[in-house]
Amino acid sequence: MPAAPVCGLSLGGMVAQQLLVDHPERITGALVASAGTNLTFPGAEQVIASWNAIWLAPDGPRRRLEATWEGLASEGYRTSPQGRAFYAGWWQLLGGVSGQALADVATGLLRFDVAAALGNVPAPVLAVAGEHDRLAPPPMVQQVADRVPGARFAVIGDAGHLVNLERPDRFNELLLELLASL
């Protein structure tokens, strides 16, 4: 099978890192956004338990979005027509999502830890953080670049966790720069 670049944000950024570790021969490069190398910080189990409590409640996925929307995106994006439309679409989609499935994913995050294995990744990696990301703050995302030999790190200003939506021009510029270098 031919090799290809990958790009992932948040949980997708964690998936991209796992692909880099498990299948380095299949990945030519990666952009990892809004994700760290693990969820082993003090209190992680309590954070996940609080997420799961919401997800497992009636209409949990939507309630979780309502409770966390402010921390996922900058105020400028949240109040923009694009941000309001994205929220409405996400809210609609979550009406059909299983809270149990989301809780299972969240619980699995506690076992995610590729920090040590990233030192063996041969592919070019660009780790991207949103300046105001509360879920995966820049120092957490920088750990990805710090672990991968030769990796680069970039912070996109005036953006939160949804950096690709909040600042699409800058995000796409960085992605295209990475792709051009492969």
Considering the chains and any ligands shown, give keywords for the structure.
Rossmann fold; about 180 residues; alpha/beta; four-stranded parallel β-sheet; 4 strands; single chain; 9 helices
Question: Could you characterize what this model shows?
Answer:
This protein is an alpha/beta fold. It has two domains: 4-38 and 113-181, Rossmann fold; 44-109. The chain has helices spanning 11-22, 44-55, 60-72, 75-78, 81-94, 99-109, 138-147, 163-166, 168-181; strands spanning 4-9, 27-33, 125-130, 152-156. Strands 1-2-3-4 form a four-stranded parallel beta sheet, with helices on both faces. Helix 2 crosses helix 3, helix 2 runs antiparallel to helix 6 (99-109) and helix 3 (60-72) packs antiparallel against helix 5. The longest helix has 14 residues, at 81-94. The radius of gyration is 16 Å and the shape is globular. The two termini are 18 Å apart. 35% of the residues are buried.
